[in-house]
Amino acid sequence: MPSGLYRLFDESGAPVSTEQFRCAPGPMGWRYFSTVQDDRGVTNVDLSVDASWRPVRVRIQSPDHHLLVSVRAGQFAGILDDAHLDIPFDQATMTVDYPSPCFPLATIRRLGETAEIDVLRFDPETLLAHPEHHRYEAGDTREVATPVGRFAARAWRPAAPRPRFSRALWVAGDVVIAGEGLELAAYDAGGQGPRAIG
Fold first, then answer.
1. 120-156 pLDDT, tens per residue?
2. FRET partner for 155 with CA separation of 20 to 30 A, picked from 35, 101, 109, 168?
3. What is d(CA 28, CA 175) in angstroms, rounded to the nearest whole number?
């Protein structure tokens, strides 16, 4: 079970949060759980995907809101705070997004190559869902240095219309090991995670 700690930074390079995570194959496919600490307090993120890396369950508990949704009969059903939700969602053609490395990772693993996909983006402040269209551009695999070692990782650049939102990520196996505004500060590969090569 890979586990670790991300440090996240704003555009000026100032630290804004940490995210302690663990991830592993689960009963449906793959599961990621993390605890995010920032100036608002503590947020828990829990994402489950199926064997094809399609989202089947999302739970986000922020200091102000609680979201729990799962795929049922072609849509997301669940609750936001005390309100019942039915969100149109085509699992075959859509994915989800939220400011945590697990969401682009799951989409990258699902797509495999450069592609575009419709997305439900959960707003980090309100947890309300907004439809968007994202593009994921695949790059080359190379050695990437991190504070916890060097990894053979593939470059990716997710892009979204918020406006001109684009960031580079480097993915090794089922872990984002580096990215613009993101640093892997602590890491344990467990029995299945990618291992540093130096």
1. 999 999 999 999 999 999 999 999 999 999 999 999 9
2. 35
3. 18
Q: To the nearest 10°, the Cα dihedral for 117, 119, 124, 127?
A: -170
Q: Is 140 exposed, middle or buried (0-12, 13-18, 19+ CB in 10 A)?
A: exposed
Strands 94-97, 115-122: pairing is: parallel
Q: How many helices and strands, by DSSP H and E, does the chain display?
A: 1, 16
In DSSP terms, 62 is beta-bridged to none
What is the structure's pLDDT at 39? 93
Bridge partners (DSSP) listed for residue 79: 68, 84
The backbone torsions φ and ψ at residue 91, rounded to the nearest 5 degrees and listed phi first, read -60, -30
Residue 189, CA distances (Å) to 22, 59, 139, 184, 186 in order: 10, 24, 24, 12, 10
Q: Residues in the chain, how many?
A: 198
